[in-house]
Design goal:
The protein is an alpha+beta fold. It has one domain. It contains 3 helices and 7 strands. The chain is elongated. The termini are far apart.
């Protein structure tokens, strides 16, 4: 055997090493796989409305935020001079996020993106003079209040 050649036993790996290599090869996609990116975009007409998602301030429209959970969201949209919108909006998972497909989407070597949108059309608040019926009811309720006498100093 000359100085530059390898012994024949080193050319082949034993079966244990092959199975280890196979395990590493199969586990590699899970280790380097990208996670799914879930984005929720909220818009309103007119823009600039303050949005609350599940009682947490999310931002002013238009905006895009990441989310984790699918399901029903409690949404409140507010803007000065406009009627407040209170709604329940469903965010539905795409087919590739259903079981068992979601496993493969999570370990895919690319990064799948799920983009959901919510659009709101706001109406201007009606500010007018109160009608006579409302004023009449207010005066009637005021008359029903028990009268209080100032404390006497006797």
């Amino acid at each position: 055997m000359d100085r530059w050649s390898l012994p024949r036993a080193d050319l082949y790996s034993p079966p244990v090493n092959r199975s280890r290599r196979l395990i590493v090869l199969l586990a590699l996609p899970a280790a380097v796989g990208g996670c799914v990116t879930r984005q929720l975009s909220v818009t309103s007409e007119p823009p600039g409305a303050l949005v609350y998602l599940n009682d947490r301030e999310a931002g002013r429209t238009p905006f895009t935020t990441d989310f984790t959970w699918y399901g029903t969201y409690d949404v409140v949209v507010r803007k000065d001079g406009y009627d407040t919108i209170v709604a329940k909006k469903r965010v539905v998972a795409p087919w590739w996020q259903w079981m068992p497909f979601d496993f493969f989407a999570e370990i895919a070597p690319w990064r799948p993106v799920d983009r959901q949108t919510m659009n709101f059309a706001m109406h201007e608040r009606q500010t007018g003079e109160p009608d006579a019926a409302v004023i009449g009811r207010g005066l009637e309720l005021q008359a029903r209040l028990p009268a209080t006498q100032p404390a006497s100093s006797k």
